[in-house]
C-alpha cells in the first residue's frame, strides 16, 4: 500500500496498523473455522505465510471496514477493534479484541521495520491461539466492531457515515478474558485478547 499520503508519524503508524489489522482479522476468521479452508488462499506478509479471503465480498468487507478506521486511528479515536462472533440469537459468543493506543505526541521518525517486526509477532501468535478459545457453533455469524473513544460526527465526516451503532446484545456478567499478545512501545501500544461469555452464576 502507498504510504505517501501519511507523512506524520501518527499517519504512518495508522497506515501500518490498518494493513496489520486487515491481515490479523482475516487470520482470526480463518482460525475460528467460520468458512471452509478453501475459502482462503495463502499469501506472504511481513515474510510470513498468512491467509487472504478468496471471496470478493468477504475480502472487501474486511478491507473496507479496517481501512475506514484510518482517519480515526491517526487521531487516536479508536480504543478497540473487535471481531465478534454471535450465536443464532444474536448474543456474542466470543470476541477477539485489538486494544489500541497511538501516541499523539510522538514526533520522531517512525522506524517502520521495528514496528512491523513487533506486529509480526502477533501474526505468529494468533494461529496457535486456537486451543485457548471456544469452539463455535456451525450457525454462528460475525462482524467487525470498533469502539470509539469519542463518537465522530457523521455530519462533519464522510468517514463516520459507514459506521453505525451496534445493536448486539451484551453479556450479563463480565467476560472471561484470555490474553494472547501485547506490545507496549513509544509510538504504539497494542493488546490482543479473547473475551468469552462467562456462564458461571455468582454466589451471594
UniProtKB/TrEMBL annotation:
PROSITE patterns to which the protein is assigned, alphabetical:
HORMA (PS50815)
Question: Under the GO molecular function aspect, what terms does this record hold?
Answer: DNA binding
- Provide the HORMA domain boundaries: 11-194
User: Which key words are in the record?
Assistant: DNA damage, DNA-binding, Nucleus
Where is it located? Nucleus
Biological process, per Gene Ontology: DNA damage response
Tell me, in one coarse class, where this protein mainly resides.
nucleus
Q: Name one GO cellular component term.
A: zeta DNA polymerase complex
The molecule here is called: DNA-binding HORMA family protein
For this protein's source organism, the top of the classification is:
Eukaryota, Viridiplantae, Streptophyta, Embryophyta, Tracheophyta
